[in-house]
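From the pipeline queue, job 12 of 40. The input is one protein chain; the requested action is below.

Action: predict structure.
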Amino acid sequence: MGNSLRCCLACVLPCGALDLIRIVHLNGYVEEITRHITAGEVLKAHPNHVLSKPCAQGVVRRILILSPESELKRGSIYFLIPASSLPQNKKRVPSKAKAHSKKSHPQGGDVPDCDRHLAISKKKSSSRRDRRHSRTDSTWRPHLESIYEDS
């Protein structure tokens, strides 16, 4: 499934305006929506499905399931996935259990995991860059060794 979605993304991204909401179905059909819409409206038209947003964290790809209340953003691509094809741990959690899990992890707020990961990686790369620049303040000198020849 990952390869077919990647191929489909390559076909969709270069052409088309950024003011569209694109929903990619499992069969490859791309639904383009120009008006404001919530995930719940899409899910009403497609029962027993979930909407997910693509999020790649390094090598591992994660499935981020959108809540029915979330509003879809223009210029973004969403995937409509049958609920039966999801792993058991990704199935919808009742709202009471979801509220309890949010209280136990208050640090993140409303920021998605992939955005939080991106912010952390930017902090790490900037600190690495700072260390590199501090080394380049001194002048570069080659490390040469003498080569002895047999006579």
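Job complete. Strands lie at 21-24, 30-33, 49-57, 60-65, 77-82.
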